[in-house]
Amino acid sequence: MSSDFVPSHNSLAGRRNHEKRRHCGLPLAVTGLQRTPAVPGVATLAESGLPGFEVVGFFGVMAPAGTPREVVTRLNGEIGKVLARPDIRERFGSQALDPGNMTAEQFGDYIKSAAGKWGKLIREARITVK
To answer: For a Cys-Cys bond, which of 8, 13, 107, 119 suits 96, CB 3.0-4.6 Å?
Structure first.
């Protein structure tokens, strides 16, 4: 498995911390397009009446522009090996994170898509920095 993409469900990770302190009830839904093993049985917002709704955080590893292709490929492969380890997958899972599996090209496409989605929302809502 090669991967340089790790989507996360940050709201779930935060929920788990609150749960430990008993300050948070059961979640209403998850914000990804697919259900998560972190809270089995909890529907997505899309399933709950908001089709197409998706808001997820993600982590990834990037290299500077112009990094030789063989370096990117090797990094991607080594990261994939680490993310495939059961102990690492368990550790990510305990934090409600799901290691993904993308090539460098797929990750680049994902970032471009996310930037387009959120850029459109920012423009349409006229959100500005103050």
So the answer is: 13
